[in-house]
Specification:
- The complex is a heterodimer of chains A (157) and B (701).
- Helix content of chain A is 36%, strand content 15%.
- Chain A has 157 residues and is an alpha+beta fold.
- Chain A has 2 domains: 75 residues, Beta-grasp domain (Ubiquitin-like (UB roll)); 68 residues, DNA polymerase, domain 1 (Orthogonal Bundle).
- Chain A has a 5-stranded mixed β-sheet, sandwiched between helices.
- In chain A, helix 2 crosses helix 5.
- With 701 residues, chain B is an alpha+beta fold.
- Chain B has 3 domains: 156 residues, Aldehyde Oxidoreductase, domain 4; 165 residues, Aldehyde oxidase/xanthine dehydrogenase, molybdopterin binding domain (Aldehyde Oxidoreductase, domain 4, 2-Layer Sandwich), CATH 3.30.365.10; 303 residues, 2-Layer Sandwich (Aldehyde Oxidoreductase, domain 4).
- In chain B, strands 9-10-7-17-14-15-16 form a 7-stranded mixed β-sheet, with helices on both faces. A 5-stranded mixed β-sheet of chain B has the order 12-22-19-18-13, covered by helices on one side.
- The mean pLDDT of chain B is 95.
- Classes of the chains: A alpha+beta (157), B alpha+beta (701).
- The interface between A and B is large, with 56 and 59 residues.
- The structure holds FE2/S2 (inorganic) cluster (2 copies).
- One FE2/S2 (inorganic) cluster (FES) binds next to loops of chain A.
Chain lengths: 157, 701
């Protein structure tokens, strides 16, 4: 069966037999390996992508359910010559250790800032609470999201 | 120069194992230490740039490569800066001196007339047109390091001490970074059916049934008790491995019981008894106080399951792995496969944080074994989540009883730390084996359990000796002989449980004589570096206004010098308890000597704090008849964003003291601080980790 959808603004179609997860399609068929496998059970957030702007775990989402929809992955965050303000803020805060959790967290943070440009600390925590970070980089990550939010507000003013 | 060479240099004396001048006017520093999220590659580059007087951008670091880099065993125990870093510094000092000699010869002057600025040689303030690369060809790097050139004095450090941003982080915020992401076209994916335990025998495997479930093409490789599913579609081989668990029949399967998952089970099991320290007094000490503490089995629980790549081509096996040591991996795989070590190359690629010995080496062996059977194919194994939880080696449970004899004033006069614990180090080749090797026809004989001796930092005995002035102390270590599951190195080894026990005891001893816990500690602590930290952290947290016990809010203190010889950390935790424990704030002050990269170091201190809170409050590996039953993040929860406290983390000025590793020094003090804060909040102590709601309720009864 052939399934078409939009990934990071481009229309793509994939030929699949049987049911395949969105995560496997992104990683193994389209070479978008920035979306990561952590658990496959919607328990860790490593595989978070935006589907029509909403953060969703790609690991257990059947590809058929995203037919015709628009998916954004970590690769779609930056443009060719500039990082997304969130990515820049994560670098500025050195928010990460091993970094394995960061793709998913950046995606959820983007979804948050897209709908709420001025979130409180509590709102950021709530938006990221589905994500696990085993290295303990949480506080830096929270600061980085705050920093990005203020940079983005400054820019759009 | 009388100091002995760092072990890394003794093992790899040739200069060119460490340093090369490249034609693009960079210097390549090679290290056996690998990046595991701790920023080591960035920090070693800083040390090299500093000693050679080069701009940081001119140094590139090659890490974890068995063909070209030095063998520095494992990246562990906070050794990377202390040993790996001092090796790099000595090598660079010597090469810098050799370069100066060559230039002096060319310019017909004395080496002392020459200074180095950004890699260029300056003679009495005047540019000479010479630099490292103009003389590089004349420096004989095939010589062995002598270690006789004194490195710079610490006050001359220019790049060491700066917050250089991590080199690997840009890739990690842009989605390109990990071994898991190397998915070249044509790669064969593989999954393994795990032998339930050493010695278990595969009686039958219903291949037809597996093929009915996992629709698609794949091969089944079977050799003794090792089974792998290999194919082009990752989802298909994954489904095959899941199905196989239901269609395999095993014999000689070990049965576990939930009692065995508790530390208390260890007491009374066969053990090797290892005393250390002064002999026990003939008579029981007067005023004896005893208490028992425990930590259960805990997991590394890396965010990514283990992964590896391998290819066997023209008689040479190339392995890529995120393990902690590429040279040991190469040796262990060669031994397990029975092939010459020279026919293997092992290269490090980044993985998720491991915090010790997780499934990485085993996944590499799986991949190597499969690749050997499929010459010319690129093979990738990625463990399943449940496989990582169920089959990675776990951090051992520990049961600790302290026996403290008090003097007439109520301070410790005689101290025994009695420990029951399985081994803390069971790496392949030293006490342990690679899982796949155990599944083959001639498995390696089980090794007798060992544990690092106290002199080498200890395993179960790490930090078992109090840092305080105690006239007589000893350790009695009961090394469990037949633990129910495989245990191995986890961040800090025994330091966390031991520091938790010792510092808990100190608070209770202070209470016996009605003294404040801080004052009690200061009364028996002569180490000035430790005193300074206690005083500073107390000031930061407002210790003086600490309230009375039993209000549901608590403030607690913890202190340790990691391994009794490395970095110091003092931690204060503020908790509130409402059925469950919530850590609200953490203050930490650490002394790690001269710090190479202060921001990177703080990142490590913070990470250690969060992980220790998670272990203390939430984590326990659970068993059922089948083995480890906590196989997902619901049955093995870790600290989440909504549970992580505010943190204030500081490093004191290193005062020229040698740099000390910092990755592990906050774990013990944090567990202790949380334990003491909980005791303060409840007015009653919890002795056993994790601090579940049930334990809180019980303490209140
Ligand atoms: S991999 Fe999807 S939530 Fe863990
Ligand atoms: S930085 Fe390692 S899991 Fe978050």
């Amino acid at each position: 069966m052939s399934i078409s959808f939009t990934v990071n603004g481009e229309t793509r179609s994939v030929e699949l037999e049987g049911s395949t997860s969105l995560l496997e399609v992104l990683r193994n068929h389209l070479g978008l390996t920035g979306t990561r496998f952590g658990c496959g059970l919607e328990q860790c957030g490593s595989c978070m992508v935006l589907v029509d702007g909403e953060p969703m775990q790609a690991c257990s989402r059947d590809m058929a359910t995203v037919a015709g929809r628009s998916v954004t992955t970590i690769e779609g965050l930056s443009t060719k010559d500039s990082l997304h303000p969130l990515q820049q803020a994560f670098l500025d805060e050195q928010a990460g250790q091993c970094g394995y959790c960061l793709s998913g967290i950046l995606i959820s943070a983007k979804a948050l800032l897209d709908r709420n440009p001025n979130p409180s600390r509590t709102e950021i925590v709530a938006a990221l609470d589905r994500h696990l970070c085993r290295c303990g980089a949480h506080q830096r990550i929270l600061k980085a999201v705050e920093r990005a939010a203020s940079a983005m507000r400054g820019r759009s003013r | 120069m009388t100091a002995p060479l760092p072990t890394s240099l003794v093992d790899n004396p040739r200069l060119d194992r460490w340093i090369r001048f490249l034609p693009d006017r960079t210097v390549r520093i090679a290290t056996g230490k690998v990046e595991i999220g701790q920023g080591i590659v960035t920090a070693l580059g800083q040390i090299a740039a500093d000693e050679l007087d080069l701009p940081y951008a001119r140094v590139v670091v090659l890490s974890g490569n068995t063909d070209e880099g030095p063998d520095e065993l494992y990246t562990s125990s906070s050794h990377s800066i202390e040993i790996g870093g001092s090796a790099v510094r000595l090598v660079c000092a010597e090469v810098r001196a050799k370069a100066l000699e060559r230039v002096a010869l060319r310019l017909n002057c004395s080496p002392t007339d020459i200074t180095v600025a950004e890699g260029r040689f300056i003679q009495n303030g005047v540019e000479t047109g010479q630099d490292y690369w103009t003389v590089a060809g004349e420096i004989d790097l095939s010589q062995n390091v002598k270690g006789t050139t004194a490195p710079k004095a610490t006050i001359a450090y220019a790049i060491v001490g700066q917050d250089i941003p991590r080199l690997d982080l840009p890739a990690k915020v842009s989605g390109a970074a990990f071994i898991h992401d190397v998915l070249e076209p044509g790669t064969l994916h593989a999954r393994v059916l795990r032998q339930p335990n050493r010695g278990a025998r595969l009686v039958s495997l219903d291949e037809a049934a597996i093929r009915r479930v996992a629709k698609g093409e794949f091969r089944i490789l079977r050799e003794a008790n090792f089974v792998a599913f290999v194919g082009k579609e990752e989802g298909v081989v994954n489904a095959a491995a899941i199905a196989a668990e239901h269609h395999a029949e095993w014999d000689k399967v070990r049965r576990l019981t939930p009692e065995q998952q508790e530390a208390a089970w260890l007491k009374g099991q066969p053990s090797e008894d290892r005393p250390y320290g002064v002999p026990a007094p003939a008579m029981a000490p007067r005023n004896l106080v005893q208490a028992t503490y425990s930590r259960p089995y805990v997991a590394h629980a890396s965010l990514a399951p283990s992964c590896a790549l391998a290819e066997y081509l023209d008689g040479h096996l190339t392995i890529q792995s995120h393990g902690q040591g590429m040279h040991p991996l190469r040796r262990n795989v060669a031994a397990a496969l029975g092939i010459p070590i020279e026919s293997i190359t092992a290269k490090h690629l980044h993985g998720a944080g491991c915090y010790g010995h997780n499934g990485a080496d085993d996944a590499a062996m799986d991949t190597a074994l499969i690749a050997m059977r499929l010459p010319g194919e690129r093979v990738r194994v990625r463990w399943r989540r449940e496989e990582e939880f169920a089959f990675e080696p776990v951090g051992p449970a520990m049961l600790i009883t302290l026996h403290v004899g008090l003097d007439e004033l109520g301070y410790p006069a005689d101290w025994t730390t009695e420990i029951w614990s399985p081994t803390h180090v069971q790496r392949p080749g030293s006490g342990g084996a690679l899982l796949a090797a155990e599944a083959l026809a001639n498995p390696p004989a089980p090794a007798k359990p060992t544990d690092p001796p106290v002199e080498r930092g200890g395993g179960a005995t790490r930090n078992a000796i109090p840092l305080y002035d105690v006239p007589a102390h000893r350790i009695l270590h009961h090394l469990t002989q037949n633990p129910p599951i495989r245990t191995s190195a986890l961040r800090g080894l025994g330091a966390l449980p031991n520091v938790f026990a010792i510092e808990s005891m100190l608070d209770d001893l202070a209470a016996r004589i009605g003294q404040d816990p801080l004052a009690y500690r200061l009364a028996i602590l002569s180490d000035p570096r430790a005193r300074r930290l206690l005083e500073q952290v107390a000031e930061r947290c407002g210790w003086a206004s600490r309230g009375t016990a039993g209000t549901g809010k608590g403030l607690g203190l913890g202190l340790a010098k990691y391994k009794n010889k490395s970095a110091y950390a003092a931690v204060v935790a503020a908790v509130t308890i409402d059925e469950e424990v919530r850590v609200e704030r953490i203050w930490c002050v650490a002394d790690a000597g001269v710090v190479v990269n202060p921001d990177g170091a703080r990142n490590q201190l913070e990470g250690g704090i969060v992980q220790a809170i998670s272990w203390t409050l939430k984590e326990q590996v659970r068993f059922d008849g089948q083995g480890i039953s906590s196989r997902d993040w619901e049955s093995y929860p870790i600290l989440r964003f909504s549970e992580v406290p505010e943190m204030q983390v500081e490093l004191v000025d290193g005062a020229g003291n040698p740099p000390l590793g910092i990755g592990e020094c906050t774990c013990g003090p944090t567990a202790a601080a949380v334990g003491n804060a909980v005791a303060h909040a409840l007015g009653a102590r919890i002795h056993d980790m994790p601090f579940t709601r049930e334990r809180v309720m019980k303490a209140l009864l």
